[in-house]
Amino acid sequence: MSTAGLDPTGATGEVVLAAREVRKSFAIGERSLEILHGADLALRASERLCLMGASGAGKSTFLHILGLLEQPTEGRVILAGEDAWSLPARRRADLRNRHIGFVFQFYHLLPELDAVENVVLPGMIARGGPRFDRSAARERAENLLDRFGLSERLTHRPGQLSGGERQRVAIARALFLDPQVLIADEPTGNLDTQTGERGLDLLLAEQELRGLALLLVTHDERIAARCERTLTMEDGLIQADSAHPVPH
Fold it and tell me: Which fold has domain 47-67+89-243?
């Protein structure tokens, strides 16, 4: 078994998300194309971990499996102490919703909902039904958006927002249920440099304030340098694991 990705730095702390020997294959006609070849990872509470690699290395596939969005062909993903892919689908979805917040490169905001409604959405999924306190949820969403400088954009739909504003709505949505783990896939990749830097500053400040574990995928070495540890993925395997001091 490969040990790359399993934190050889001697760091202590609870492992909140782990992958063990994760493999993923896709059927193409009569052939099977293996994308991941036994990838391992351990993410500790409050840690900033960066995943880098060339396009086609398997990063996004690995991230979707870690985030319980896509099932591995083989291997295990342990989230909050539970073997996630051994759970029934409904329990796994609940585990994902309670413990993981996602920030995607293209935001994935629902175009027919306004900013507040997009932020509240994870709460509606997790706690929907007649006892769901919509008023309290809306107040929480408004407070988050106000904190992120969007108090004048609460009723705007995604198409009426700039890229930076959509990114901030996506970060607020990811934080709405106070997850243990924040997963960010190229969070600045769809923005100009200045706007991306402001969004990244906000993301990292919230991660530090809340003590979240952060798994961040990027091609940008400057962003990787702001994480405590960097994993490099090549041909579906974690090939290198490096630690470095993080400037705050």
Answer: Rossmann fold (3.40.50)
